[in-house]
Amino acid sequence: SRVVKLAVIPGDGIGPEVVAEAEKVLDAVTDGADVAFEKTRFSLGAARYLETGDTLTDEDLAAIASHDAILLGAVGGMPGDPRLKDANIERGLLLKLRFALDHYVNLRPSVLYPGASGPLADPGDIDFVVVREGTEGPYVGNGGSIRTGTPHEIANETSVNTAFGIERVVRFAFAQAEKRRQKLTLVHKTNVLVHAGGMWKRIVDEVAQEYPGVAVDYLHVDAATIFLVTNPGRFGVIVTDNLFGDILTDLAGAVTGGIGLAASGNINPDGAFPSMFEPVHGSAPDIAGQQIADPTAAILSVALLLEHLGLSDEAQRVTRAAREDIEARDGSARTTAQVGDAITARLRA
Ligand code: NAD
Ligand code: IPM
Ligand code: MN
Is 132 annotated as a binding residue? Predict the structure, then answer.
């Protein structure tokens, strides 16, 4: 039978709590299946940094890269911890993985599941996916400052946009749009970021010629935040740059019943490197260690992982179990483990 080598990075804060539940679900759905997951656990994140001073060693990176896929919880230490003053776990670990493993598609679906309690009175039928560019934009770390710490400091953070990088993610987004709602919205800020925005717009218009069935529109990012609240049902696929995509997907998570439900995949569609699946949320230091985090986002990330690996039946079973659990929620408090157990029980039923 097939063996999948899975790297597991529980990380910090609520990361280990939600990953434990995601693993329960993965074990349950593959129990008796024709596929076996061989897991390697990597101790990375703020805790590892505090212990050894390492953020991501070359050895760890090479070992992770030799797996078929990655499941990650969240990384990021306690805010204000003076021992983390010189660390940058987010850049040095999470972004390093996304860049080194060429995760140029950051796929973030937003679905309002029946029974999910979102903040909108009349949300409509929300079912879109944000295709967030994952390897460029303001995230590349192309910046610096001079006269640092003085009143005359100048700090630059350059957004890097390449025609190659935009075209490949735009092509992925069109292929998604063809499969769902035949609707693609480019989100950018072409009225101000004329150079980068202009190139995004041109490339979208060019690729659109090959997809006559897909309706294409454009929104400035500020206006996109309006429609994500007033009419999120209008979206099919949103394609956007790395930073705009980051911001929009937290908002999208909030309108679809909370960030505790929002899953994501950092995908290398070419298959040259393992893709990495993780909740959209972070390490949530404000609730860490209390067993009150919702593990559903991590569990739905397992569904994305299974789908990516071509295990569609298993993926659908996980999504269905999570969906049924969401629908059955009555507002009474459950621990992180109780949510994981309930979803696992549905899978085993
Ligand atoms: P966050 O997503 O960790 O938390 C934002 C709010 O959402 C908090 O109130 C938190 O309690 C709540 N929340 C998050 N996940 C939840 C869940 N599963 N169930 C219930 N409530 C949940 O964002 P933040 O506070 O801006 O960041 C905290 C740390 O995490 C920072 O160090 C940040 O850099 C890092 N971070 C990491 C990732 C990642 O590893 N992928 C993503 C985002 C943020
Ligand atoms: C996310 C996070 C990361 C991002 C941070 C922690 C680097 O917010 O996955 O959404 O900005 O991409
Ligand atoms: Mn984010």
Answer: yes
